[in-house]
Amino acid sequence: MPKPIGPARRIKPYQVIQAVLGAGFAGYLLWRLYQVFIAAPEYGADTWARFLITGAILGGVYALIAIGYTLVYGILRMINFAHGDIMMLGAFGGYFVLETTRSIPIGSSNFSDAYPVWSVLAAFLAGVAVATVSGYFLERIAYRPLRGAPRLVPLISAIGASIFLENAAQLLFGAQRRDYANPAVLTRGEGWTLAIGGTDVILPYTGVLTFVLSILLMLALYALVMRTRLGRSMRAVAENKQVAALMGIDVDGVISRTFIISGALAGAAGVMWGLHLGLVYHFVGFIPGIKAFTAAVLGGIGSVPGAMLGGLFLGLVESLGPAVLGINFQLKDVIAFGILVLVLIFRPTGIVGEVLTEEKV
Amino acid sequence: MKRLTYILLAATLAALLLAACAPAGEGKVSGVPEECKADGSCAVIKPGQTIKIGMGAPMTGDNAAFGQDISQAAKIAVQDAGEFNGFVFELIAEDDGGTPEGGAAVANKLVADPTVVAIAGHIFSGATLSAMPIYEAANIPMMSPSATVPDLTKKGSPVFNRCVFTDAAQGKFAAEYLYNTLKITKLAIVHDGQAYGQGLATVVQDIFTSLGGTVVSFNAVTPGESDYSAVLADIASKKPQALYFGGYTSEGVVIVNQMKQSGLEGVIFFGDDGTFGQDFLDRTGANGEGAYSTSLIPPASDARTAFDAAYLENYGQPAGKLSPYSWTAYDSAAVLIKVIKDVALYSSDGNLYIPRAELVAAVRAVKDYQGLSGTITCDEIGECSASGPVFNVVKDGKWVEAPK
Questions:
Q1: Least Cα separation, residue A283 to chain B (angstroms)
Q2: Helices (H), chain A
Q3: Is the ipTM reported for this complex over the cut 0.90?
Q4: Residues of B with CB under 8 A from a CB of A
Q5: Tell me: the pLDDT tens digits for B64-82?
Q6: What's the angle, vertex CA A222, arms to CA A221 and CA A228, rounded to 5?
C-alpha cells in the first residue's frame, strides 16, 4: 500500500485523546500490578494459580465458540447470533447420551463408569452431530433465502433463530436445569493436586480435557482452512463471492460447509461446557455466545487466530481482571467489555484482524 | 370439598339448634353491651350467622397455588376452632389475583359485609398494601401469613400484623446463628445482585459485624452463569470459616459444586430460604453435605403433626407442597380466632357482639401464642413472628433441622 504523499502528517485531535487515554490506562494498570504483586500482595501464589486455571479453561471454550462466529462472519459478513444456541443443542445431545450410558447396567457398575472413554466419545459424537445438523439447517432455513438481502435482514433473522431455538429447547426438554452425569473418573471438581505456595490447588480433569481438546480442535481447524482444498475455497469465498463463483467454486456449498464446521465446533464446545461446568438448560448458550462474540471482535472478527487469541484473552481477563484491579468480581463483565471498548478505540479491527480486514475492504 | 361443605353445614345446623335452645340470660352480658351502643362500633353476629374471617388471595392465575394452599390451611384452623357459644367461624377467601388493584377491590367487598370481623391476609405484599387503609377505616385487624416486604409494618397502620418473618428478620437470625451457634468469626458473603439476595446479604453483613464477627469478603455473582470459580478462588484467599449466600438455588448449587476445586473445601455453605428444597439436594449430591439453609417449615411438634395429617386428609397432598406458607396460614387464622373468642361478648339477646376497636388492639397485643410456626408475639408495629426461621442442614443427603 503506497504511503500518502502530501504535507507533513498533522496530529489529529482524536489521536491526542487516544494517547492520553492510553497512557492513563497503562499507567493505572502498571500501578495496580505494582500494588498487587510487590507493594501489598493480596493473594498468594495458590490463588493466582486458581485464577489462571479458571481463566484458561473458560478462555478455551470461548475461543472454540468464537471461531464459529468468525468463520461465518468471514464468509457471509453477518453475525450468527444463534451460534450460542447451536452450542446449547450440542450440550443437550451429549447430555442425553451420557444419561443413556449411565442407565445401562454392567455388573454392579454401568456403561458410563465402566467405559468412560467410549461414553465421553459417544457424547462428543452426539453433541457434534446434533449441532452440525442444526447448523446446516439453520443456514438453509434462516439465512440462505436472505442471501443478497441488505446486511441487517439476516442479522434480524439470526436473532429470531436464536429466540426460536431457545424456546423450542424449552418446550422439548423443559425449563429445569439439568446436571451432566459425568463418568466417575471425570467427576467434576476432581483433579490433579498441585502444591503451590504450600497449598493444594486442584487442576480439574474436566478442565484439562476441555483445554487440550479445544486447542487441538483449533489447530485442526487452522490446518483445514490453510491446507485443504475446502479451506482454500472458503478463503476465496471470503475474499470475494462473485469472483470465487467465476473461478468455479460452488459458493452455496462452501457456505453450507462453513456452517457445518462452525456447528461442529459449537457442538464440541457444548459438550465440554457440560462436562466441565455440569449445567445444561435451554438458555445455557446465551452468555457464552455473547462472550464468544466479544472474543471474536476482540481478536479481530473474520480472523481464526484472532478468535483463538481473543477467547483465551477474554477468559483470562475475566478471572484475573477483578483481582488485578482490586474490584468486586461482580464487575468482571464490565472489565471484559471495557477492554473491548479500549481495543475498538485503539485498534478498531481487533488484536490481529488488521491485515485481513484491510484486504477484504 | 364436598365433605367440608357437609361439615360446615352440619356445624351451622348444630349452631342454629344450640342458639335456639340457649336460654336467655346465660350470656356474658345482657342486652346490647355498653361498648356497642355507638353505631358500627361492634360486629353483631345474629344467631344463624357465622363469624367471618376474610382473606384476599390469588386464587386464579400464575400464583393460584399460593392462594389455594393458604386458604386450605386457614380452613383447617377454622374447622379446629369448633363452636363458640353456638356460633361457628367461616373463612371467606376472595380472589385478589395478588395485585394491588385486586387487593383494594377485595377489601372493599369484605368490609361491606358486617359479619367479617378480621382478615387472615392478604397474601401478596402489593395487594396487602392497597388493602390496608380500607381495613383501617373499618377497624378490621389483619394477620398476614405471607406478606414479607419489610416496609409493610413501617406504614404506621394499627390494623396490619403478620406472623411470617421478613427478609430482614431472616438475615438477622441467620447472622446470629452463624456467630453464636456455629461460632463463626470470619464470614464471606456472596449474593446474586438482586433485590432479595442482596438485601439479605446486607442485613447479614450488618448484624454479623455488629455482633463482633469479621466479614472477610462481600462479593456478588452474575445470576445465570455456570462458572463462579474465579470469585470463589478470591474468597478462598481470604480464608473464611463459612460462606453466606443470598440468592436462589440455581446459583447456590453452582457455588456449592465449585467450592472444593476453588480452595473452599471444609468451608460451611449457609444459604437462605431461596436455596432450600429438594432441588438443592438433587443437584449438589455429595458436595452439598453439611450445607445449611433456611426454611419456613416449622420445627416438629405434636400440633404440626396433627395439622399435616389433617391437611393431607382433606386435600390429598402434603402441607407445604403448593406453597411454603401452609403453617403460617394456619397460624394467622388460628391466632385471629383465639383473639376473637377473647374479645367477643355473648349477649342475653342471643347475639354475639365483637367490639371492633378492642379486637384491633387485642390482635396487636398478642403475646406468647404457641402457633405451628413457633411463638407468636406481636411487637408495637405488628411483627408477630417471634421465633424466626428454622435452619436446616444437609445430613446423609437429606435436609434435617439444625440444632438450635
A1: 9
A2: 13-34, 45-76, 83-103, 111-114, 116-138, 152-173, 205-227, 229-239, 241-246, 251-277, 286-299, 304-325, 332-346, 354-360
A3: no
A4: 193, 219-222, 224-227, 229-231, 233-234, 236-237, 250, 253-254, 257-258, 260-263, 283, 287
A5: 888 999 999 999 999 999 9
A6: 85
